[in-house]
Write a structure and sequence with these properties.
elongated; 9 helices; mainly alpha; about 220 residues
Length: about 220
């Protein structure tokens, strides 16, 4: 009996040592592998049409095709409850002139609006809004075409809503800034531009006079 226990103990010890030796290559069984291991996708890769666009959801008599886009009218977390009514087409651009800034002039922090302008717009349109930013710089910059002069008569006469439409969807060589600036921030930047043009709120204690020009800031790596 003692010999049997000894042999059993030795075998158990050998098995235990073998089980603990080296890295474990087998992860074992997973109860729900589709939940434990997500399907990997390449960043910015196009969706496989066989796996996505053919997926449908029966809804009454019609079908809804899955395209991975948010539901229409969805508002991002932290975004203001404001839905711009016009689409990105010629009719939407024309009708945008009827839209007014939803924020009152005295409720906008123009110093913060100025900061947003310098960060997002100044590199092209310049700190003085004259279209002579670092990317143009009197034609010596890397940009091949002069950005819009926001102090021009045509821009001074442009309605707030049309300017918001252009910033939201992009216009000409300028792309959309809807992903960089929230709805409120876009209206703030427009209020700042209108104030500098002389058609909006009065600028008080302007930060432009107290901060380096945009091209100087870029040279310093700020």
């Amino acid at each position: 009996m003692k010999k049997f226990l000894t042999i059993t103990g030795i075998i158990s010890l050998v098995l235990l040592m073998a089980a603990c030796g080296g890295p474990r290559r087998n992860p074992g069984r997973v109860y729900m592998p589709d939940m434990a291991y997500s399907r990997a996708y390449e960043t910015y890769a196009e969706l496989d049409s066989n796996k996505f666009t053919n997926d449908t959801l029966e809804l009454g008599e019609g079908k809804i095709f899955y395209n991975s886009m948010p539901v229409g009218g969805t508002i991002a977390r932290g975004e203001m409850l404001y839905i711009y009514p016009h689409k990105n087409d010629s009719a939407g651009y024309a009708n945008s002139a009827d839209i007014t800034n939803p924020f009152k002039a005295d409720s906008i922090d123009l110093k913060e609006a100025e900061r947003l302008y310098l960060v997002n717009c100044g590199i092209c349109h310049g700190a003085k809004l004259d279209g002579n930013g670092p990317l143009w710089k009197d034609g010596a910059g890397p940009y091949p075409a002069a950005p819009k002069n926001l102090m021009g008569d045509d821009m001074k006469s442009m309605k707030d809503g049309t300017m918001f439409h252009s910033v939201t969807y992009g216009k000409g060589q300028m792309g959309s800034y809807a992903s960089q600036l929230s709805t409120k921030q876009r209206w703030e930047v427009i209020a700042f531009i209108k104030a500098k043009q002389g058609g909006g709120a009065v600028m008080k204690d302007s930060a432009v006079a107290k901060t380096p020009a945009v091209d100087t800031m870029m040279k310093k790596g700020k």
